[in-house]
Structure formats: structure tokens, C-alpha cells
Specification:
237 residues, alpha+beta, 6-stranded mixed β-sheet, globular
Length: 237
Amino acid sequence: MLNSTVNVYWACLEDEWMLADPPTRVADIFYEKYNFKKQVLPSLSQIHYCPSFNGNLENLFTLKSLYDYSFRIENNNLITDMYHQEFYDRHVVIRSLDKKFFSFRNKYIFFTDEPSLEVTFYEYPYLEDNNITQRCMIPSGKFDIGQWFRNTEFAFFLKEGFNEFKIEKNEVYSYIRFHTSKEIKFKQFRFNNTFYNFIQDGSRINSFKPLYSLQNFYKSFKNKKLILKEINNNLIN
């Protein structure tokens, strides 16, 4: 009998990692929010009977912010009134001030013992109406978490007419999509410096000779057994 579940190991890389919850199913949040209930004869409002809509929610999960935070563009500088400089330095990346392109780091990492599992990170959270959907455009990307070990960070453009980024604690800032029909079984592990070194291995290869394509990264990836061993030694649940 084929295994109908996939192990996805995850960790939060933030100092406040104990605040992090596992990803939540988008479908569960949406149906609870709008109080959809099954009826004997579905009405036009019962969108959860729609197979195309439900199919698009399969293995689609949320990521939520650990923090309240904001910053704004003012006189060609980035200004914030929150927390301290160390927090700013750890969490805010100016990619292009002119293009209003930034990163706000809520760092996570996902990995699997499967030979291959493609995941799309930072899909636009289209079923939310919040600070992110109002203010941000999000470039998403897809890579194989069975063949590459790297963390993610939330990158975005501020939309036209907005010069201030805002996010609230527990606010959904993006979706992540696992490209499989199997059930995802999340297992949390604690991140440490050994994992950081595994990430740096890939960065060093790329800096020595730019690899350009994802397939080249995958071919150069040699640490999977070591990473899984370290994960198993640091599992939380």
C-alpha cells in the first residue's frame, strides 16, 4: 500500500521561534470565517461544494507573522518608530528603495524525506483582506524541498500609492502550496548552527560558480542524509 502522507519538517529561524505555529490550511480558515455549513440541497452561496475551488485549496497553507511591525519611506529614507535598531537590522532588507522593493524577515525552512516535493512559496493570500493584500505585491517562487535546503524570506513590492508597510502579529502574509495530492504531516524541529552551515554550503557553491538553474542546485546537493539525521535529533513533535 502506498503511503498517503508526506513528512514535511519545518523550523522557524527567528529568535522568537517558540511563538511560531505550524502552517494552517487555507480551506479551514476560509470556511470557518464565513461559517459555511453543508446543506441537503446546496445553494449558490455554498462555494465549498465547488470542486474547482476546493481543488485549488488542496495542500495550500498559511504563514502568519510573529510580529507587529511597520516602516515607511520618508525623504528617500526608510523610517520606523517600532522596537530597536537590532530588530530592524535583523528583519528589514532594502532591495530597491526606488522600486519600493523590500523583505520583511519571518524566516522559516521546510524540508522532506521524500525524494522530491515541489513547493510554491509566498503565493498571494487572495482570500485575505488585510494589510498585506491591501499594500503589497508578492513575487512567489517554487523549488523542491526534497532536493534543496534553504530558508525563505518574505519579499514584496509596496503598491502604487503606498509608502508604508504594516503587518500585525498573526496576520496571514502569504500562502505556501505543496504540489502533491498526499496529506502533509508537519513535524517541527529546532534550528541550530549546524543547519545554518548546511544552508551556507549551497551559498558557497553558488558564489564560487553561479549555478543559475534550480536543476544545477539539485545536482550539487549532497547533504540530505546529514540534514535528516540532524533533524531527527532535534525534533520537537
